Please model this.
Amino acid sequence: MKCRVIGMWGGFPKENGPCSGYLIEQDEFKVLLDCGSGVLTNVQKYVDLNNINHVLLSHYHYDHFSDIGAYLFSRLVNTKIGNTDEALHVYGPDDEEMKRRVEEIEYCEFSTIDKNSELHIGPFRFTFMRNNHPIETYSIKIESGHKKIVYTSDTSYTSKLIEFAADADLLIAESSLYDGMDGSASGHMTSSEAGMLAYQSKAKKVILTHLPHYGELEELLASALNEGNHAIELARPGVLIEL
Ligand SMILES: [Zn+2]
Model:
């Protein structure tokens, strides 16, 4: 299993720096996890849009889903000009408007996820945990063979995450805030909370993501490392992690 970080900025993109998007691949099979601002442009550096037929959205904040409309339109055009005849499947929390927008486009299908969902897409098994965030949001676990990736999406710290993320080969942990800040109201983790999760879940490799646009990111990384898991790095656009 492979994970390509397409983008990792929280809230809004930088120039050439997209928001959340992670391409999960095994053999020739691909699933895009989240599709925030800038992801649609940048994912095409690595793969033709017509070769991704499954997009999973953790929640409907712009930095995680704003490019899905353009993705749907690309599928509409590409089916009309004969570049593909395969459906684009979009998965996300229950939302009538999202379902309507997806399914008004020929060749596009929408499926709802919730905390009890178990999705089998190609070689992958997806399960979910409800997050602490202002809107319905899920942490996502992806398993294939003996490998496991856990993506926290956006959430404040909760000890339930430790069990959900236990023994992940790759933990993609949000770290929106610096040590000493309080993420409980906004529904985000500090770097030390992300580090604590990395340590307690015994993750084999960790990337800190959903990074803030201010402060020194090296300090963010240092405070996460200080919690005891030394396999933590900052997410960077384009980086490929092979498990
Ligand atoms: Zn976000």
User: Anything to note?
Assistant: The domain at 2-238 is CATH 3.60.15.10 (Metallo-beta-lactamase; Chain A). Residues 10, 61, 63-64, 154, 210 surround zinc ion (CB under 6 Å). The CA atoms of residues 191 and 224 lie 5 Å apart. The chain has seven helices and 14 strands.
